[in-house]
Amino acid sequence: MKKISCNIIKDILPLYLDGVVSDDTKKIVEEHLKECDQCRNEAMKLKQDVVLPASKSVRLAETEVVKGLKRKLFRKKFLVSAISVILTIVILSGVYFYMALTKTCVPYDSGKVRVEEENGSLHIVYRGDDLEGTVGFDPTEVTVNGTEQNVFMFYCYTTLWSQYIESIFDDETEKTEERIIYVGQKDEIDRIYYGEFDSADPLSAGYDYASVLDGPKVELIWER
Fold it and tell me: Which residues make beta-bridge pairs with 52?
């Protein structure tokens, strides 16, 4: 068999060291290496180049780097998830408080709101399906038509939350409800008004009740 040159052996060496040559080629290379010091030294150099990166110390270092990257990636994902959850809670809370605190006065309807007398006392009775709450203040002396009158003023309200969210879960058969508001003794009340007003101002000194009672948003629903 014709002797194979060193150049050919050197070309085959990388494949031989990777173990991807056939058995016949492997045998030819090994026989040549036994006889050729130059090719044998070349093979040893190539083998060292292949083995060194795979040493234990290098593998451990690579493993630590990978673990560190995984930890950083996990922390980043956790931080992003936590921030997303917090932002979602803040946004939903803001929407809830806006919808729950935005009050809308329920227009007066004598079929829903009426004044009743019982044992010398006055009560407001509400019966309907669009009430979230009521706003009112204690009977107060107000000059009406030049005369001091003991006046009680109130209104019923609904909210965006009760209108659009709670209504989804309400049982249609149980929507109508009745609420009773105590006003005071009949002989101590001269007039009862229904209408929207600033719920904070009546508590302050100098509040102009008369102008509110004469306004378009307030109407007289009972007088003694």
Answer: none
Beta strands 121-128 and 113-118 are: antiparallel
Q: Which amino acid is at 179?
A: R
Contact criterion met (CB below 8 Å) for 32 and 39 = yes
| Three-state DSSP state, 199 | coil
Name the nearest CA neighbour of 221 among 178, 183, 176, 188.
183
End-to-end, the C-alpha distance of the chain in Å comes to 133
CB atoms within 10 A of CB 174: 8
Q: Could you read off the pLDDT of 81-97 as tens digits, one per residue?
A: 999 999 999 999 999 99
Kindly list the distances between the CA atom of residue 131 and the CA atoms of 105, 113, 124, in Å, as whole numbers in the listed order: 9, 11, 14
Amino acid of residue 85: V
pLDDT band at residue 74 using 50, 70 and 90 as cut-offs: confident
**Which one, of 223, 215, 222, lies nearest residue 105 by Cα?**
215
Position 114 pLDDT exceeds 60? yes
Concatenating the DSSP letter of every residue in 54-80 gives: GSHHHHHHHHHHHHHHHHHHHHHHHHH
CA atoms within 13 A on the CB side of 216: 0
Between strands 191-195 and 147-159, the pairing is parallel
Average pLDDT over residues 19-32: 87
